[in-house]
Amino acid sequence: MSLAEDGSIRIIVPLRGEGAAELASLPAIIEEDVQERLLRGLRYASDVLERVDSEHRLSHVVIVAAILGGDYVAWRTRTEHARSPNQIEIGMPRTRRPVALAPAHRSREALRLEAGALAEDLTVLLRREHRG
Questions:
Q1: What is the mean pLDDT, run by run of 10 residues, along the chain of 132 residues?
Q2: Exposed e or buried b for every residue in 25-49, given b needs 16+ CB within 10 A?
Q3: Which helix (H) or strand (E) element contains residue 9?
Q4: What is the model's pTM?
Q5: DSSP 8-state secondary structure symbol assigned to residue 45
Q6: Separation CA 64–CA 102 (nearest Å)
Q7: Running DSSP on this structure, what letter comes out for residue 30?
Q8: Cα angle vertex 81, ends 80, 84, to 5°?
Q9: How far apart are the first and last CA of the chain?
């Protein structure tokens, strides 16, 4: 995690763990894991902002998400991956853009109170961007 003086927060988390099940299967981005990590990241960002700006001078946020290094990795749900962990379809590598919600800016309170819905919306956008 990094925090800039303008209030920008960058959180980078791995999408794949190193458990035995993940190491024994082909690599895949698991949709539920993406949504869970986004939710945790949004909550963490809210906590960080509360700690460094308890007077709420920063009233709005823009949330941007991206999957880095996702070439040659399938996007699946847990159920899809469990059904066939050693067989995937992948597309050709291409430039993937970061995604943002529309409207891009949200109130800081939304970051705290609507984190679940924001994570879900970002997950849908990331899935669309990943699958092309």
A1: 86 66 68 95 94 93 89 87 83 81 93 96 94 82
A2: ebebbbbebbbebbbebbeebbeeb
A3: strand 9-10
A4: 0.87
A5: H
A6: 11
A7: E
A8: 90
A9: 28
